Amino acid sequence: MNKPLVGAFLAALLLGAGAAPAVAAEPAQQAQDVAPKADPAVKAVTFAGTVALSNCSGSVVRSPDSAPTDPALVLSNGHCLESGFPGPGEVIVDQPSSRTFTLLNASGSGVGTLKASKIAYGTMTDTDLSLYETTSTYQQIEDSYGIQALELETAHPTAGTAITVASGYWKRTYSCDIDGFVHQLKEGRWTWKDSVRYTPECQTIGGTSGSPVIDDATGKVVAVNNTGNESGQECTDNNPCEVDENGNVTVREGINYAQQTYNMVPCIGAGSKIDLDREGCALPKP
After folding, report:
1. For the domain with range 159-260, which CATH number is right: 2.40.10.10, 1.10.10.10, 3.60.20.10, 2.60.40.10?
2. pTM above 0.85, yes or no
């Protein structure tokens, strides 16, 4: 996983030895901001709606059917949970949480603090995902801070799509394209399905975990940034490998990945409730 950070100046894991981050990067390393693509028809992606966690990045997201009075949801990675990395097969649902998130405006300045009421959903099985329900509604956030939630795309993304990874933790963006999709992405004990592979320009670092991956053309969230192969090892902690339908393994050193989010939209019901039994919801169940 893109290593979660503990504090602004430490590159410590949420768990102790044996936890499995990937794309390890010390905070002293500097990421290079990549300029938005020069298509005048495309509006530049900003930080509006992104959040900074204590150790990761995230964003305020909504489904197309979310109501203004629904509690706002914050999207990040399963490996960014304050309780530590969920084990293979572990799914967390409706667990109380008082975690806070710094809400950013378009320029990356913090404009307010959001507070979680619970971890609505979290797992590292098949995907690397966490959704927090907050104590604020979408309308309250917009009224107080002028910030609208980012909308989740409902369709599978396509290769060649121009994307921006917007890190609220670092207040940096990374621009590249979707290079393709991975049947299975294996890292240590975890396996993720149908992962997004970036083109090499997106050199994400520790602290970018949980960043929204935004379609430059639509402004919608198509994935959540989570991992990359750090040193060319095969299927180890910090070094995910690609496994195709025939079991063939490919290692791509220096390439980074994300987990798609369209598949979680059917799981979001009225009032931002996560209902794993809703029609079309295919997220892993406890």
Report:
1. 2.40.10.10
2. yes
